[in-house]
Amino acid sequence: MYLIVHEIGHFLFYISVILSILILFRKTGKILFSPKYLIISLIATLLIDLDHFIDYFKYYGLLFNFEDFALGTHFAQSGKVYVFLHSWELLLLLLIIGFYLIKKKNNYLLMIITLGMLSHVFYDTAYYGFSIEAYSLIYRAAGNFDIAIFRGF
């Protein structure tokens, strides 16, 4: 149940991001709020969590228990948090490429995927009370991906 409630939070937060863009940047907001892009971005908002499978299978191997996965027990038990897609550096790179594609090719696809991922990471940061550094891949790698980074120790 927790996982479902959390994912609904991601969905609602993303809708508020897109509505804000619609209000502040009418032309771009209308493009991003089209049904096609809205569906793609919502999928990206949720699918970014696929990187949790890397952490799960790295700890448990090929055994899978949905309840353990949904509760995130693998993080506490392994003492490590990798979640490679939850990365400010990756998101910055995708934003830069996304802006380039909008300017040069009028293609919004990568930008909409990135906005979905970005809203997810912002939501997680606020929801869990993580420090901004916690989602820096470089910072986590320097700390050997230790879970203490997320616990604020």
From TrEMBL:
Keyword Transmembrane helix attached: yes
Listed transmembrane segments: 6-25, 37-54, 81-102, 109-130
Protein name: Membrane-bound metal-dependent hydrolase
Domain of life: Bacteria
Keywords: Membrane, Transmembrane, Transmembrane helix
